[in-house]
Amino acid sequence: MERRSVLLLVGVVVVVALAGSVGASCPDGFQLFPHGACVKLFTWGSSQFFPSWDGASEDCKKEGGQLITLDTPEKIQQFSTHIFGLGGSWDGYPFCVGARKTESGWRWLSGAKLSSDSHVWLPSQPAESATHAQLVPMSSHPRHYLTSSIGCRAAACEKKP
Predict the structure, then answer these.
(1) Which of 5, 45, 48, 63 has the most CB within a 10 Å radius?
(2) What is the pLDDT of residue 18?
(3) What separation in angstroms does the CA of 147 have from each of 36, 55, 65, 90?
(4) Spatial separation of the C-alpha atoms in residues 111 and 100, rounded to whole Å
(5) Kindly report the CA angle at 100 between 97 and 103, in degrees rounded to 5?
(6) Nearest Cα to 95, choosing from 58, 132, 130, 140?
(7) Neighbours of 60 (CB within 10 A)
(8) What is the pLDDT of residues 79-106, one digit of tens each?
């Protein structure tokens, strides 16, 4: 292949790659987060009935996604910063997230391991009987921690752009 043809081919590949990353966008209702996923926040308002973790997971699936995986401290911090930046009642909601207890221990829906000894859990969490997790805010500082999930006041769903 001629040198000019090779350079042209490389140029086309670079342009296509850049167009894909620059043009990445999220569907309506979703926002692009720094870790590259489109995220949509749900709340069930002031209803006295809040869905279970499984119900929240089903609602995310209906949107074409899944409950958010926050498998690094950086992702949890990015999520916390975003939520606290929204203000209003969002920063007070506990969010159902994609972490659950499996036969082999705690895992994110992505398959990544989640140590029950991790500093991302509130002290004395997860409860021995817990099967799912939620992310709860701390009023003393803008940070969220994992705790056992009972019901979901809000949920964070993600999907790839």
Answers:
(1) 63
(2) 34
(3) 25, 18, 22, 18
(4) 10
(5) 170
(6) 132
(7) 23
(8) 888 888 887 777 778 889 999 999 999 9
DSSP one-letter string for 55-102: HHHHHHHHTT-EEPP--SHHHHHHHHHHHHHH-TTGGG--EEEEEEEE
Integer CA distances (angstroms), 125 to 4, 72, 82, 106, 147, in order: 62, 18, 24, 12, 6
Closest CA to 37 of 92, 90, 110, 94: 110
Which of 29-43, 80-94, 104-118, 121-135 has the weakest average pLDDT? 80-94
In terms of DSSP bridges, do strands 95-102 and 154-159 run parallel, antiparallel, or are they unpaired? parallel
Helix (H) and strand (E) counts in the chain: 3, 8
What tens digit of pLDDT does each residue of 38-52 get?
999 988 766 556 788
1 is written with which tokens? 């292949």
pTM, two decimals, is 0.78
The answer on pLDDT for 139 being more than 50 is yes
Dig out the tokens for 81 from the structure.
Answer: 């910063």
Contact 43, 153 (CB under 8 A): yes
